[in-house]
Design brief:
The protein is an alpha/beta fold and about 260 residues long. The protein contains 9 helices and 6 strands; from the N terminus they run αβαβαβαββαβαααα. Helix content is about 40%, strand content about 10%. The protein is elongated and about 80 Å long.
Length: about 260
């Protein structure tokens, strides 16, 4: 099972030799998560949005690509972000910090405090990407969103919208790219993986590489997606409809089969 829109996974489900079941509906009662793209110049309006969520009794995730300053000065790190938010809210809002360098028991303690509502804003790295369920959290802020992959951001966005309240995901970036706008336009993992697939390739279907293009003599997995999918369906139907008569009406099929039998 996969809920992650990785291009290689998308390509494998379309072209791979496997049976798939598709679930495209949300759990009952959940609303669509609205996604917005804001620049760092709009931080004041973002703080206003955060305050509204807090006044409604809800909680907020704020995700940064880095743990602390010095790793890359061009990005907002989690430690600095926590300090800035404490100043903005005048230390009246309990803010927690969570990242991968913390000891397991410390991470569990912070996460439990957030679940219990003792922490109202959780500043974190991508350690919250999977396995976190706090229904009262209704806002996800992703700083320097251009530094994250679409699959990662889609997973992060999945941490909110787990209740009947309207939830918001805010992508903060000074780079309004086509890639980021894919998330603004849609919350459909299939659409996101298809667009990501077009932009960065399907990776290696026979190996582990998850991006880049495979080179075939004739086919192109990006431009021939519909044709190849239809051919896959038609070939399976053809085999199913003719397996009982051993394809006796198709001498060309027998010729191809005979030629394949002699291949080493």
């Amino acid at each position: 099972m996969s809920a992650t829109p990785i291009p290689r996974t998308y390509a494998l489900t379309i072209y791979g030799d496997m049976d798939i079941s598709i679930i495209k509906t949300k759990p009952e009662g959940r609303k669509e998560v609205r996604t917005y793209l804001k620049s760092f110049r709009e931080m004041k309006s973002l703080l206003t949005m955060m305050l509204e969520e807090l006044k409604s009794g809800h909680q907020i995730y704020a995700v940064s690509p880095l743990i602390e300053a010095g790793e890359d000065d061009s990005m907002m790190d989690a430690t600095t972000l926590k300090s800035k938010l404490e100043i903005a809210f005048k230390s009246q809002v309990p803010i927690g910090l969570l990242h991968g360098r913390m000891k397991p028991e410390e991470k569990d303690r912070v996460m439990q405090q957030f679940k219990d509502g003792e922490i109202r804003i959780l500043v974190s790295t991508t350690v919250i990407e999977v396995g976190v369920d706090v229904p009262n959290a209704t806002m996800m802020i992703i700083m320097n969103a251009e530094r994250f992959g679409l699959a990662t951001m889609h997973q992060l966005r999945g941490r909110i919208g787990r209740n009947s309240f309207e939830s918001k995901c805010i992508l903060v970036s000074d780079k309004s790219t086509k890639r980021l706008n894919v998330l603004v336009e849609s919350s459909d993992g299939f659409y996101i993986s298809e667009e990501d697939f077009k932009m960065r390739g399907e990776g290696d279907l026979f190996g582990v590489r998850q991006s880049g293009d495979m080179v075939f003599k004739l086919a192109n997995l990006k431009t021939d997606a519909r044709l190849l999918t239809n051919a896959n369906v038609d070939s399976h139907e053809f085999i199913e409809q003719n397996k009982d008569n051993l394809f006796e009406d198709y001498p060309l099929y027998r010729k191809i089969q005979e030629s394949l039998m002699h291949l080493d």
